[in-house]
Design goal:
Layout lengths: L2 E2 L16 H10 L3 H11 L8 H13 L5 H10 L1 H6 L11 H11 L4 H19 L6 E10 L7 H8 L5 E8 L5 E17 L5 E7 L5 H15 L7 E4 L6 H9 L3 E4 L10 E3 L9 E4 L4 E5 L6 E4 L1 E6 L4 E5 L1 H5 L6 H4 L8 E5 L15 H8 L2 H13 L10 H24 L2 E2 L10 H9 L16 H10 L1
Parallel strand pairs: 1-15, 2-6, 6-7
Antiparallel strand pairs: 2-4, 3-4, 4-5, 8-9, 9-10, 10-11, 12-13, 13-14
Helix pairs in contact: 1-15, 2-7, 3-4, 3-15, 6-15, 7-15
Length: 475
Amino acid sequence: MRIQINKQLFAWDSLEDSPTLKTIQQLLDVIPDEALLAQLEASRGKGRNDYSVRTLWGVLVLSIALRHQNIEACLAELRRNESLRKLIGVESEDRVPPKWVLSRFLEKLGTEPHLTLLHQVFDALIQRLGESVPDLGRNTAGDATSLNARRRKTALAEEEQEQGLPQASGGRKEYTDDDGKVNKVVEWFGFKLHLLVDVKHEVSLAYKITDTKAGDGETLPAVLADAQRNLPDKRIETLAYDKAADTNAVHQLLSAASIKPVIQNRSLWKEEHEKMLPGHDGNSNIVYDEAGTVHCYDRVSEPIVRHKMSYIGYEPQRETLKYRCPAMHEGFECPMAKFCNANKSYGLTVRVPRDIDLRRFPSLPRATMKFERLYKGRTAVERVNARLKIFWGADDGNVTGSRRFFALLGVVLAVHGAFATLLAMAPRYEGTLGQTRLSPIAKALHGKIKPKQQPPVRRKKPVSRERQELLQFTA
């Protein structure tokens, strides 16, 4: 895989539609699956070993990486593609595992401790990228999306619940307009996938699967904690989310972690649209609205005019937001200036303590251009969701049972992290005749990854001449 030098570090549009054998081999090399495969082999014990664990794991990875519609399509390609079979240690066409073996393997992969180790494979990929890419995770965004699945009707569902896995259930999401009227309804049956992604690079940093009833604000702390463990300390600076995460608990959590919330405000004030700032009486002309925007009133003009005060900055030592007179700051005439500014050259200054309401007064006010720019980065989550659901088949809808669904989605996220690593490691070239170069990040990643040894291929025992004659005679 070669990428033009003017492309972004994670050039998702440069992924090959049909990956070459070299790319597939590199993909298998970058996935840190040693601990997971060792545990799967140990759990097998002295049971049947007709198909090795590494072969079955390779089939799952290939079915997702090669964008097959289902596992049966991947098995069909393995039967006719000898070179592809050798990459995962299958020596002949008749040694390709049947479908039911993969189904049982997926069931096994969804049990503990294998499911936790599978999640650690994804975490290890992101930790490796976080150490090599200096700005990975600096500006983040989160969201939840619907995933279709089927529910079991047998006693196995009770076993999955005892394991702590939620069951597929019906979900419903309503979209409203500015007037609060519902204009769109989405219904599905399955689970919810909560993601936290990097806005610039569109790389998933952490994920969590829940039932359809789990709220975004309730799940965000756990997802954020996973992302903080996967990234260097204090790497996350901003977090963008929709109004589903606009709760006091979320704002308190982000404030304690020194993360600037870029969260859309929920409209809860039905009658009163403005309030006086604490410490200001009825003679003051300083108010704030539900979104935390501070205004001042020109009570001399007829009619009375309201101005949005100029935001100067956040003072972390004082934990206050600083505002000044908009007339002095922006250079226009205001009849109230001589009363408010009291001959001050810089005008009236208002400091708003954030502890009045952390949800109302975030460290990055909503009525700023920077907030609007960072909030637009939330679309990165939608693009990541589209790749997971459409490109790699996370929203197949034909997976039955929580164990299989959690296992399959874990493999999909691992493939996502592995492809992100390949894109960062890919050599860059200038034009068709330019010299291919490795970036410093690619060199650092190459130093962290060691090629894996090819799985041993089991050869058939040679048939003796007498045995051949006996077979011909019996035939």
